Amino acid sequence: MKIPLTGWLPIGALVPFTLPLDTPPMEAATADTIPAEGGPWQYEPKWDGFRCLAFKEGSDLELRAKSGKPLGRYFPEVVAMLASLAAPRFVLDGELVIEQHGSFSFDALQMRLHPADSRIRKLARETPASFIVFDLLLAPNGANLMSLPLQRRRAELEALIARVGNCAHLVLSPVSRERRDAEAWLAQSGGGALDGVVAKQLEGPYAAGERAMVKVKRRRTADCVVGGFRYLASRPQVGSLLLGLYDAADRLNHVGFTATIREEDRAALTRRLEALIEPPGFTGDAPGGPSRWSTERSGQWQPLRPELVVEVRFDQVTGNRFRHGTTLLRWRLDKAPRQCRFDQLGIVEPKPVSTVDGA
Length: 359
What we know:
alpha+beta; CATH 2.40.50.140; 7 helices; elongated
């Protein structure tokens, strides 16, 4: 479906929205297991995107991130789509996502946060975002629904989605009251579309800004080669380990880092690592240098001979890399570095780097 990129609201426009634009979204506390007691609960997939509140008043539309910052400039196609819906006003809570190659791409979302308007509009045409909605704070008739129980808000949300008609880029998030469905969603998470499971009190109100929900993420482990390390910015001791996995062409690719090193272990570990310094470290994808998000020192890294293996815990993989920093669990002296491969992540490994004349 082609979405027109006209009529979106510029940042800074002053519009008298019925619900204040600084209304914070309801947040979630982290738990290790899906709750069953203390309910009744409504379970939902936790989507891998940008959390967003959408405010509509007449033909005006504002998107606000969880931080409260405007997002409309970066997603003009979503603004245009929501502004065109046949409802005079609403406030929706949902998730912005971009689908690429059959899965959601967090990297594609991050690419939208670009200063050039022409670049944003080009990406909006080529890879349009969708809005997955899971709550309704303000009804089209102007009624504030935040004090109502979740099951009432969900009924109002379903009625609104049915009323505005079919739209390819407006998606109603599935829900279930069955814990087995939540367990199935959790088992599917961590590879692109799903980031875990959210549990909400079925009789609970919308508690803006409070951790009134429960989120559970799938924690998985992987054995990785230590292909390099970075020093601390404050002193010449190890600050983080750079992790790698081998691909089908036996190239070691950088996949992330771990910085959970105990303070009392730093000195001895630094000496151990410095004895292994030897280029190139990574023979496939390598860590990048300094960027606009890093200092010159943080972009520097030391390559190592691929002899050390660690087991780490991670929660999400995107673009063949761990999304966040991982947790160091233990050193695997029993594991050969060449045994640390992409297949343990359950993803399609990167294509081998092309060569010229066998080089």
